[in-house]
Specification:
The complex is a heterodimer of chains A (139) and B (402). Chain A is mainly beta and 139 residues long. Chain A contains 1 helix and 8 strands, in the order αββββββββ. In chain A, the strands form 2 sheets. Chain A has a 5-stranded antiparallel beta sheet with strand order 6-5-4-7-8. In chain A, strands 2-1-3 form a 3-stranded antiparallel beta sheet. The longest helix of chain A has 8 residues. Chain B is an alpha/beta fold and 402 residues long. The longest helix of chain B has 18 residues. The chains are: A mainly beta (139), B alpha/beta (402).
């Protein structure tokens, strides 16, 4: 079993968007990482919301992230959630430069290279029915 | 009843305690095992319910309230109706709600019961109650162990908490179960911290033995107004305080240590349960130093360290050192999860274990634990939840009438 982290096969469960989250997943299909910005207080919001979770404003607009961030916390999973996942895989919380947090798996490095504070950049990999999942890779 | 207080709360007299006339009258753990052949969640629920009523010296005809997710079926199957019924969240919230209902005169003998069997059948996947279906979490292979691991890793980064400290917690809880003839993993030990570290990795930093096991079983509790149970077979136990902290649905937002609500200076997810503990202690007129047994939720080793910090038993970042030197073991100042918890005693799905922490607290205060009885225990703190799940429930039990 290699300790090098790679994207999951396209056979893992795909995301099932809601009306609120659909723009996010459509952006991912285009290779764009989207988030919402509150027009009233400037808060960067994720996951997709119907009103700003900090000030309550409904003035939320989609923006494209530059895709750069810093690892906030990480784990390496060796016992898969279900058999379609290949271990090891590394779910991490990433502090995005725009000021929000997102959970995604880190790939493109050895498990021993994972660290809080690691700079990462987004990349996309396909799952079923044309959907694409954001992953992060060390820079 | 609530008063603002810094940490730790100072003991203070609470006049006219709301639960003064409420007693925990009966408790029962139904049979439990890794797999209970021939049982369903409902059959083992009923076994627990009848056991708790018998423990209280009551019969189904005495019941006039049922609380919990299965309450409608329980009322029908046991022929309790017509009764007051609430399908509330199981575990500590159900017990607090039952106490409040009795205090408010809505009912005066309330049954809370739950069970789980035949639920975990796809063994190539993690247990069904550990698997999220949220679109931002599920595609990344998340499950409960990975969620709590992200919380633990952040704490290790911030404060230098070590895997050895985590392993000390796991060995302590597992040894409690090793000694308990009623535990599913009775006789599986004893364990040293090194044994924990030598087990295979599941979700870094959690080794297999840092994690809860899965099992099947049932559990039930009966609360009553004191004058309805004048001849209790066992020493009455009282609800001195209880509350719950909820930040949001489990497994949707990434379980970040620093996640807060609208107030950026509010208590972060890493210390979820602090507000609940403050309220529970305030209602009880007690503080952490008054607690004799810590029947804490133990889904993963780090969660015990987090709770000691969240509840004010030690300072922020001090939990790793706090659990060393025997403080949390047999004969220690704050013995934890004395039945063996979800790591060793039993873990019947998402709800049974939530009541089991309360049941053990009651047994400690009755002085009837077959093992790990804390001599003279008069106050037990029982908890559910966790920072990886964005909620923590807290209950303070005592054997003196408040």
């Amino acid at each position: 079993m290699s300790d090098f982290l790679v994207p999951q096969p396209a056979t893992i469960p795909r995301p099932y968007p809601s009306a609120v989250s659909e723009p996010y997943w459509e952006g991912a299909k285009r290779g764009e990482l989207l988030f919402q910005r509150c027009g009233a207080c400037g808060h960067a919001e994720f996951d997709p919301a119907i009103l700003c979770r900090k000030c309550g404003s409904r003035d939320l607009a989609w923006e494209r992230s530059a895709g750069l961030g810093t690892v906030y916390s990480w784990t390496v999973v060796w016992r898969p959630q279900q058999p379609s996942f290949v271990v090891p895989y590394a779910p991490a919380i990433v502090d995005m430069d725009e000021g929000y947090q997102i959970l995604a798996n880190v790939v493109g490095c050895d498990v021993a290279d994972l660290a809080v504070g690691q700079r990462v950049t987004v990349e996309f990999h396909p799952v079923a029915e044309g959907y694409a999942l954001p992953y992060f890779r060390p820079v | 009843m609530w008063r603002a207080c810094g940490y730790p709360c100072q003991p203070a007299a609470v006049p006219g305690h709301p639960f003064r006339d409420v007693v925990v009258a009966g408790v029962h753990n139904a049979r439990q095992a890794r797999v209970l052949e021939g049982e369903t969640s409902f059959t083992i629920t009923i076994e627990g319910a009848l056991g708790a009523l018998a423990d209280a010296g009551l019969t189904p005809r005495d019941v006039n309230g049922v609380v919990g997710a299965l309450s409608s079926d329980i009322a029908y199957e046991l022929g309790l109706g017509p009764v007051w019924q609430s399908a509330s969240q199981l575990g500590i919230p159900a017990v607090v709600e039952a106490a409040a209902c009795i205090a408010a005169g809505l009912s005066d003998v309330i049954l809370i019961a739950t069970g789980s069997a035949g639920v975990y059948t796809e063994r190539s996947s993690t247990a069904p109650w550990t698997r999220p279906n949220n679109e931002f979490v599920a595609p990344y292979g998340m499950f409960t162990a990975a969620e709590f691991a992200l919380i633990a890793r952040r704490h290790m980064h911030l404060y230098g908490t070590t895997s050895e400290q985590l392993a000390t917690v796991a060995a302590t809880v597992r040894n409690n179960g090793h000694a308990n003839p009623e535990a599913v993993y009775y006789g599986r030990g004893p364990f040293t911290p090194q044994d924990i570290l030598d087990s295979r990795m599941v979700a870094d930093p959690f080794h297999l033995l840092d994690c809860a096991m899965t099992a099947e079983g049932g559990a039930a509790i009966v609360l009553a107004r004191a004058d309805r149970v004048p001849d209790l077979p066992n020493r009455p136990v009282y609800v001195l305080g209880g509350s719950t902290d909820r930040i949001g649905p489990s497994y949707r937002h990434a379980p970040a240590w620093d996640l807060t609500g609208r107030d950026p200076d509010g208590i972060p997810n890493g210390y979820v349960g602090r507000r609940a503990a403050q309220r529970a202690f305030a209602t009880a007129g007690l503080g952490p130093d008054d607690v004799d047994t810590c029947e804490f939720y133990d889904p993963f080793s780090f969660e015990i360290i987090r709770q000691f910090e969240a509840f004010g038993f030690c300072g922020e970042g001090e939990g790793g050192d706090f659990v060393l030197d025997g403080t949390i073991g047999p004969g220690g100042r704050f013995p934890i999860t004395t039945d063996g918890g979800t790591m060793s005693f039993g873990h019947g799905g998402a709800t049974v274990q939530l009541l089991q922490r309360v049941i053990r607290g009651v047994e400690q205060l009755r002085g009837t634990c077959p093992t790990m009885q804390v001599d003279g225990a008069s106050v037990s703190m029982c908890t559910n939840g966790g920072a990886g799940a964005l909620f923590t429930d807290v209950m303070i039990l005592g054997n003196g009438r408040p």
